[in-house]
Design a protein that fits this description.
The complex is a heterotrimer of chains A (about 375), B (about 260) and C (about 240).
Chain A lengths: L10 H17 L15 E11 L2 E8 L5 E7 L10 E10 L2 E9 L3 E10 L1 H9 L7 H9 L5 H8 L8 H8 L3 H9 L7 H9 L4 H11 L5 H10 L3 H9 L6 H9 L4 H9 L7 H9 L4 H9 L7 H9 L4 H9 L7 H9 L4 H10 L7 H12 L4
Antiparallel strand pairs in A: 1-2, 1-6, 2-3, 4-5, 5-6
Helix pairs in contact in A: 1-5, 3-5, 5-7, 8-10, 9-11, 15-17
Chain B lengths: L1 H19 L4 E7 L8 E6 L4 E6 L3 E8 L21 E7 L2 E7 L5 E8 L3 E6 L5 E4 L5 E5 L4 E8 L1 E5 L4 E8 L5 E4 L5 E5 L5 E7 L4 E3 L3 E3 L4 E6 L2 E6 L3 E5 L4 E7 L4 E5 L1
Parallel strand pairs in B: 2-6, 2-8, 3-7, 3-9, 8-10, 9-11, 10-12, 11-13, 12-14, 13-15, 14-22, 15-23, 16-22, 17-23
Antiparallel strand pairs in B: 1-4, 4-7, 5-6, 16-21, 18-21, 19-20
Chain C lengths: L1 H8 L3 H16 L9 H15 L5 H9 L2 H22 L2 H26 L5 H10 L8 H13 L3 H12 L5 H9 L7 H14 L5 H7 L7 H14 L1
Helix pairs in contact in C: 5-6, 6-7, 7-9, 8-9, 9-11, 11-13
Classes of the chains: A alpha+beta (about 375), B mainly beta (about 260), C mainly alpha (about 240).
Chain lengths: ~375, ~260, ~240
């Protein structure tokens, strides 16, 4: 059975890709020094570039000896101290993770120069005490940009996310806060792994989304199913609409329906055609073969007034057409059932074969079973 | 008197509650008298956990329980809903192979299976549960991409893989003629073996540590040669290799984000 | 409907038609009638056939065993051992060297046969053992490489595919292996294998991998760590 492929213009998918890219750009070619906590000030230097767009200041940073840039474009002028237009100016950005001192030239629309980033030892120390050691310099810079507080590591540890390794950078970049984690736990997912938590946030799965979806689908929804739902754009509206059709859909069936773009309108149109026992599987089969009410009406007009879902599906699956039915009619078989038409199609029976069969039976049109045997004999080599 | 009545209440409370809950549980008994010395048991749970306990017997006892089931009111005080069967299970025996099948229509069903301890196992949980195997004396093959894998008191060998979960394997005795392979992406790996076991190790934890209290002798690592056009590049093998008691069957353990711990039993 | 399903499964239409023909022919055969004496006649015939059967001799049983896969391997190893012992007792040192080289080559061939046989076994542990054994072979011929690549693409067990990938890395200087690894990028569904392949592609630095990596990054449900790794690899290749 064919299932229509879903074109990936989903907002959620774009969000996932852009989140991942921004994390990648944030991480960039990892040659950066690992910050140690042996009482030394850890520093790194590099270059910066600025592009102003309205009130947003889009900075990109290049770490010395690395090839890539970290982009961070969520700054406002008030985030900095001493930022103004001019040549050879100095300004700074300070936060719990450390301090960045900028030197360079800033004009009305852009700027460039060099920076020195100095990590805050106590920030690094408290991270290590809570199981987050060997944080790369890019991670600390990101923590500065996000104004990540020292309590972040204490809270993450309490919530069971200590020692998540390089995923810490993703946690910081995506803004996975203790508040978000607790809300997801309360919504019914207390045991997400760090990877799943990152995926949840990257797909913008909010606690509200989780609560609403579970309301319509039921509590028997695993975290991987929620991720699939979010990736495919199944929202609570869709779940509610499907629920209100009266169909009882399993989580995977709901996903399949969304992938096949089955909406309440389609279900209602199929129901209006008077099919009995229209269950989710049959609806999926009908949609998979692109069977619309018009198609059903057309088939029925060919004389199959009582054709049920299974027969309509078979008719379509075997590519039977009005022309073929007409050909069989004209050739002397006007009242064939769909099953018999399928047999004819399978045996490649057409008007020419029927004429041959008629000749074989001395001018008499053979009964249907004999026609099938004739066609079978004709196909057998040597006979 | 009051204490006595309270005790009686607590004694009968579970029975009272059992009558009120609509926990759906099914039992399937598979008789395998010809296979009590050994066979092969295969099961893939589409959604839910799998718990397997080996014992000395001739029957495979399968208990399956719906994880989420609630009392549903019919809207009429005098009538309650009588649940129809929300999942199906069946078993097929082909030679020495027993295959358990479950059709759960998206519902989480947790399985508790007792089987003869010499049965080799091929078990998969596709979602929403852990796989736990206790006291089996045979080869064990488990895939549980979204959950943990736990093996306790095993005699034999194992091929275990997960993606999201951690894996804990405790061997009473190793089958020294067969390899062990344990892999995950997110979680920790923990192996417990008798101190006298003879194994050759191939270990990798990309982001964390490898820890042991056994006398595993680390070997020098080799190199892998990559050649492209006229350029030959020598790259160091990124696995940590070692031997225990002179070496033996190969034990490969690999995790990206977790620790690897190898301990004496 | 059945034919449509078979067609979708990839069966040839001619084959299906032939089967339908056969089925029709069989159903058109006249059905025989059961006569009263039929049962007793059948059992008489059966007893006669049984009495004509001779008991198999020990030699024939042994010959049958030795023609089997296990017997062949055992016979080969026994021949090798006998040849080795014989050669050490009676030949000169030069002859001994030549014979040793020949026997080593034969042992290698035996091992290759064993590896190929084990790769077909239903037990995943046997298949892991087989792919691990490849790195112990002195020479690895094309049949082994092709088998390993097939295992990488199509084995149902994640660990078996992972083990096959690890073994193939030792032959990554071969263009066939390199191309096979690149072709397998889009065919993997396990994050364990996908991640290792991403690491391998970063090491190999082969630009031919770029289109395959771009394709796999389009996957809706690609694991986060795998996506990050492939993005890094792509960046390093472009």
């Amino acid at each position: 059975m064919k299932i229509n492929s879903v074109k990936l213009k989903d907002k959620q998918m774009k969000r996932l890709i852009s989140s991942s890219l921004s994390i990648l750009i944030a991480v960039v070619f990892i040659q950066g020094s690992i910050v140690s906590v042996h009482g030394q000030q850890q520093e790194t230097t590099g270059e910066w570039k600025l592009e102003k767009k309205g009130s947003s200041l889009n900075f990109s940073f290049k770490i010395e000896d690395n090839d890539g840039f970290i982009n961070q474009n969520t700054f406002k002028a008030s985030d900095f101290v001493g930022l103004k237009t001019g040549n050879k100016i100095t300004f700074s950005l300070t936060g719990p993770a450390g301090k960045m001192v900028f030197k360079g030239d800033v004009s009305a629309n852009q700027g460039m120069g060099t920076y020195v980033f100095t990590a805050d030892n106590s920030f690094v120390k408290i991270a290590k005490e809570n199981g987050f050691d060997n944080i790369k310099i890019e991670g600390l810079m990101l923590a500065l940009f996000q104004q990540t507080p020292k309590s972040y590591f204490v809270d993450l540890k309490k919530l069971g996310y200590s020692g998540i390794g390089s995923k810490l950078i993703a946690f910081i970049a995506l803004g996975i806060t203790p508040k978000y984690i607790m809300a997801i736990k309360d919504a019914g997912y207390p045991d997400l792994s760090a990877g799943q938590m990152v995926t949840f946030k990257a797909l913008n799965i909010s606690p509200d989304y989780v609560t609403k979806i579970r309301k319509w689908v039921g509590e028997d929804l695993s975290s991987s199913e929620i991720i699939q739902y979010a990736a495919l754009g199944v929202d609570d509206n869709y779940a509610r609409e499907m629920n209100q059709t009266g169909l009882v859909l399993s989580p995977q069936e709901l996903l399949r329906f969304k992938a096949q773009k089955i909406d309440p309108g389609y279900i209602a149109s199929m129901r209006k055609l008077g099919f009995e026992d229209l269950n989710p599987s049959k609806i999926a089969q009908l949609k998979g073969l692109n069977i619309t009410p018009e198609v059903v009406t057309k088939i029925r007009k060919m004389g199959f007034r009582n054709a049920g879902v299974n027969e309509i599906v078979k008719f379509r699956a075997m590519n039977l057409t009005e022309e073929f039915v007409s050909e069989m009619n004209k050739a002397g078989y006007p009242d064939l059932t769909i099953h018999q038409l399928i047999q004819c199609k399978a045996m490649n029976i057409n008007s020419a074969i029927i004429r041959e069969a008629k000749d074989f039976y001395e001018g008499n049109l053979p009964e249907f079973s004999k026609l099938i045997h004739f066609a079978a004999m004709k196909r057998t080599p040597g006979k | 008197m009051r204490k006595f009545l309270t005790a009686v209440l607590f004694l009968f409370l579970p029975l009272v509650l059992a009558g009120q809950t609509s926990a759906v549980e099914e039992v399937l008994v598979i008789e395998v008298p010809n296979l009590s010395t050994g066979g092969n048991f295969c099961f893939e749970n589409p959604k839910g956990s799998v718990m397997i306990t080996g014992y000395n017997g001739e029957v495979i006892l399968v208990t399956a329980k719906l994880r989420y089931s609630k009392i549903e009111s019919s809207g009429d005080d005098k009538l309650r809903k009588l649940h129809q069967y929300p999942f199906e299970m069946s078993a097929e025996i082909r030679g020495d192979k027993v295959v358990l099948l479950c059709k759960s229509n998206g519902k989480t069903v947790d399985f508790d299976i007792k089987l003869p301890q010499n049965f080799s196992l091929s078990i998969k949980s596709k979602d929403n549960g852990e796989v736990k195997i206790v006291k089996v004396n045979a080869d064990i093959d488990v895939e549980n991409p979204h959950g943990d894998i736990i093996l306790l008191g095993i005699i034999g060998s194992a091929n275990l893989s997960s993606v999201e979960g951690s894996i804990y394997a405790d061997f009473k005795e190793i089958d020294s003629t067969k390899p062990i392979m344990i892999s995950t992406l997110e979680g920790d790996l923990s192996l417990g073996i008798p101190e006298e076991s003879k194994l050759s190790f191939k270990l990798k934890s990309t982001e964390k540590e490898i820890l042991t209290d056994l006398n595993i002798v680390r070997l020098n690592r080799g190199s892998i040669i990559n050649q492209k056009e006229d350029k030959k590049v020598f790259v160091m093998d990124d696995w940590t290799k070692g031997t225990l008691n002179g070496g033996g069957a190969l034990c490969t353990m690999n995790t990206y984000y977790g620790n690897i711990t190898i301990k004496k039993r | 409907m059945k034919k449509a399903e078979l067609l979708k499964e990839g069966f040839c239409e001619d084959e299906i038609d032939d089967l339908i023909t056969l089925d029709n022919q069989l159903s058109s055969l006249p059905k025989g009638k059961v006569t009263p004496g039929m049962n007793s006649k059948f059992y008489l015939w059966l007893e006669k056939e049984k009495s004509l059967q001779t008991k198999p001799s020990i030699l024939s049983v042994w010959m049958k065993w030795i023609q089997g896969p296990v017997g062949r391997v055992a016979a080969g190893i026994a021949l090798f051992v006998a040849g080795w012992l014989g050669s050490t007792m009676i030949s000169s040192s030069n002859d001994r060297d030549i014979r040793f080289g020949v026997l080593t080559s034969e042992v290698n061939e035996l091992k290759q046969s064993l590896v190929l046989t084990k790769m077909q076994q239903s037990s995943s542990m046997d298949r892991i053992q087989a792919v691990n054994m490849v790195n112990e072979l002195n020479d690895v011929d094309d049949a082994i490489i092709q088998s390993m690549l097939m295992v990488l693409i199509s084995d149902q067990n994640d660990n078996v595919r992972l083990a096959s990938l690890e073994s193939l890395l030792h032959y990554a200087d071969s263009p066939i292996v390199r191309e096979g690894l690149i072709r397998s990028i889009c065919l993997q569904s396990s994050p364990l294998v996908q991640l290792r392949l991403a690491e391998v592609m970063m090491n190999l630095q082969d630009p031919d991998a770029i289109p395959e990596i771009e394709k796999v990054l389009q996957s809706r449900d690609l694991n986060y760590t795998v996506r990050t790794k492939y993005n890094e690899t792509l960046k390093s290749l472009t």
